[in-house]
Predict the structure of Metallo-beta-lactamase domain-containing protein.
Amino acid sequence: SLLIEDGNRLVLVDAGLGDKQSAKFFRFFSRWGEHNTDASLTAHGFNRDDITDVLFTHLHFDHCGGATKRDGDKIVPAFKNARFWCQKDHWEWATISPNPREKASFLKENLEPIKDSGQLTLFAGREAGFCKELGFEMLLVDGHTEKMVLPKINYKGKTIIFAADLVPTVGHIPIPYLMGYDIRPLVTMKEKGLLLNDAAKNGYLFFMQHDAHNEVVSLKNTEKGICLDQSISLKNL
Ligand SMILES: [Zn+2]
């Protein structure tokens, strides 16, 4: 996840796996390290109730599970003052008869409470564009899942692409190194190639969401293709 403070808005991009699932679930998807949302927010002088917006890049459980929590025998939004944002086609893809391949990633307990909360805004638009409410541009890609959203954020004069599951770690920078979860691998290769080229040419940085060791990275064009240039900590930008 990435927290963006912009004027009066405090936007969280994705909400992680969360902690409401069963012990059995966490045997398969164990959480690594000491970090969690509350501790990270506290470290920056915020708490959950300060979050004004949560943007889902897509609805696979490791990106949206933390947006809801258990409250007795109910599941409720974990950010009570936030508006939840999701691309409309993707929401429908995930909730209206999801395909058998991704069905196990789109969990009802993550999505129904968000829908029922009245805090959900679905945004349409099949093209990339600027979202006035959130204050940044969004790119759309279709290789990993239908209409995954990649925020393109201006920060201290730099452009940071939140690469979500298009380029989840630096290990996925080489074009043919794909995630097994991609529904359209050939489309991912094409989308990744275009975006990496653009990034290397224009000096965009990539935020790699699943990379435990690199916060943001710059890229360079070499004779072997686009490669990692520098790994940078956001606080040193
Ligand atoms: Zn995913």
The pocket of zinc ion is lined by residues 58, 60, 144, 165, 181 (CB under 6 Å). The mean pLDDT is 94. The radius of gyration is 17 Å.
